[in-house]
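Recap quiz, item 2
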Amino acid sequence: MTEQQLPLERLVAGWMADEAAGAPEPLLEKILATTGRSRPRPRWWAMLTEAPMRSARTRVAVGLPNRGFVYAALIALLLAGLAALAVGASILLNRPGPADAADWSGFRGNADHAGVGLEGPTGNPVLGWQFHATGAVLEVAIVGDRVFFAADDGRLFALSRNGGVTHWAVAVPNPPLGGPYGADGRLYVTDANGVLSAFDQSDGHRIWSTTTAYTIPSRMISAGGTVYFGTGDGFLVAVDAATGIERWRVQPPGATLVNAPAFGNGLVYAGTVGAGYVAIDPASQRVVWRGDTSDDVTGTASVADGIAYIGAGATATSGKLRAFDAVTGQLRWTAEDELLSLPTVADGVAFSSTTTGLVAALDTATGTVKWRIHFPGEVRAAVVASGIVYLFAGSERRLYAVEAATGNLLWQFDAPATGNCCIAVARGAVYVGLQDGSVLSIVGDRGSVSPQPFPSLAASPAPTTPPSIGPSPTSVPSLAKVTWSTDLRRMAFAPVCQIAVDPTTGRIWAPEAGSDKIAVFEPDGTFVEEWGGSGSGPGQFDFSRGNGDGYGTLAFAKDGSFFVLDVGNRRVQHFDAKRTYLGEWGGFGDRPGQFTDPVGIAVAADGSVWVLDDIRSVVEQYTPDGNVIDSFDPFAQQPINKGANSLAIDGHGNLYVSSVAPSKVLVFDAKGTPLRTVGEGQFSEQAGNMSIDADGRLFVAQGPERGSALGILTFAPDGSLIGGFGPVGVEAGQLVFPGGIALDGKGGIYIEDSDFGSTRLIRLELLPPAVP
Amino acid sequence: MVAVARIVWERSEGDRRSGTRMQVELVERARSGDHEAFAILAKESFGRLYGAAKLILRDQDRAQDAVQEALVLAWKHVRAIRDPEAWDAWLYRLTVRACYRLARSAKRRDVLELHVEVDREPAGHDFTGQLVERDRLGRELGRLPVDQRAVMVLHFYLDLPLTEAASVLDIPVGTAKSRLHRGLETLRLALTDERADAGIRSGERSA
């Protein structure tokens, strides 16, 4: 690095300050003259018409907190009459396209998202075929004799339904892709820039793309010649299915985000942030009704048999499944259990699951529970076909079939890898997309199956609650004071990257996920240089995980050679102490030596390299040139696997894995034998990056949503909590989002505070107490 | 680079408090229909609002329309304010909302702008504050989606912390961060020659 660049942010701020100057005073005079001729509107009018605004001090600083309800009360009678007329007209004008009922158009089936397949496997499960794509696969669409799906490297595939043979495959720019949704002879797909495109199902050629890049478009549906989707800035958008031209967009009052919609009864239903659950008439583009969701984080809408459902979203930590009259919006019932997601509905029963492993069958008329079964981990949304409920436990890697009437187990089928989405049931088979790029077709042997009572897990009380990450230790002693702090705000740091210390120079190496470079600092915090850049060649990196999160980490060997975990390229690159490229290993996949979602790397004293892969759920040991030595599953003996954040190693070769939820640290010896669990119930946020000093003290970072708790918790070698430091804040000694953490071996600890507004590299001197 | 102390606020806490007290009184007077108080508030905010609108819309005429719309609406709806200390944030919101509306009405033009090829400078050129680079920066900012531009203006021009910017825009803080990051990343890629072909990285994806 020979040039010092003027930081971009400073350039932007300076440019804006210059550019913004020169306000025209005559305009102000004109405005004041205009306003001076009128009076402010009455308070009730202003309150009703002005959108509510929250502030840090007051829940609602402007407007009414429940403006929607007041609106609803004022116009309810009028709407009731209009709605009946509008619905009648809409049914006539907006019939769904003539999709074959035996097809499975995309996520959750067809446009109603009812999740009902016409025909599943008969008899015991048998693998029909397995296809290996070039990236992780989420949802699968089945149309006629074709299977369609997208891999996360951007390739869109069409396979034959019977043999899994490639019919065509096209590369779509700007992955990852959303969809596909197959209808009208087309496949609808969104890209990472928010552009919606349609591809021909017969040969994969692009038919059209929208000229607008939408803000975080949701999954889409197609009905009556229109493609509908929600956006991350609060709109429901309708696009002409034949041309890609936007027909209209509607922002439900107060909505800041609109989730994936469903279509039924001539209306489009969508869960929102800020506007509850809404039904929109596509003919008039008006909100017909709005259902209260109590500010729950809701997910995809579904509608079946005159009832519109909205359940908890995938990221929700609380919230209820609600059922509304699809025409009037009247709340019919709220489910008893927490976190139930959008249901599958058939024959008067709604089958719904939670991210905590509960599956419940509810009477659609009353919401009462007919049966419950419990799984060890997360269960993806169910599908029902011909009296059988199909459930995919993604982290458990297992597909279950249970009797819809009783909840009894019919069969189970083990998948070769984890899954992160949903299943499709159509035309006599279940189709599953997996994180290792596999797509499975599971058919039946037509034999007889005897239902068995579903295996009883520890009976989970109802309502269930999400895993707790425990109380915050606000009173633990502070164990560090600041030595220096370097402002990194002008650089491209982003949560969450691990830092490392070069043992030969003491310099601190810090990956910048925003630029795919590695910044190097002197031990006194002085910036030295940036090294690397974006790409997939030697010395180039992609510090982005498959889900788009910035993530970079590296580890040094004793001689100053080092290994960079190039997470986006799914490889480890090896360099000597002079940064000469020595080699690499990895590649996308689920086999030993491959990576699906690598998140942590550590070098043992013997020179071997350990890598933690979150999706593969494996800690794998390699020689320095990449040959696999050994591996173990850190969650093998855990009741639940909600993912891992980081990997660290101590001087004895023991390995530390931070678990997402429950938030804790799992400690193993080099053979993978569990030694102890540290910090369970003592974190207030996810346990993140870690470092262990020569005395065996473990330092663990936790995230910004930790309330009054400290950002770094310190544990003695026996696992007991002995202190910490860094309450939330931007002042000296405070930390917002401690991402990277490394010890300097001289009584100090380096922390990279990764929050956007206060990115800093800090050195703190560790204080007594020493190890008890 | 050496260790630096972070400056959080340019004004002292005392100045801020007295300024806030005065503004609270003026908002309360305006709320009761005192146009003179509103005029003082409007004069105090006018330059910032116009600057923000001009930066978001990249068009002086539309910026004037946006500020006029925002201030007229602020007067009409001044009685909707429950917390007078939220005055500035509310004005920013009204202005951004007006900008969004005006940007949408001119969407066809904006879409065309999105497809204009980036002017490439000779290899090895850096963006060290020269006039030509500032011109380029202006062009590249103009090509960003309006929602990313809005976050950048609130954060860099109006000096709002991202939490407040998110509140003004009525979006989650994570979304604001993501938009800011994506905007900066786009600029960085566009302005750095050796990375001009690398494309725009994705930072957000729906769950």
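Chain A touches chain B through 98 residues (CB under 8 Å).
The CA atoms of residues 303 and 702 of chain A lie 40 Å apart.
End of item.
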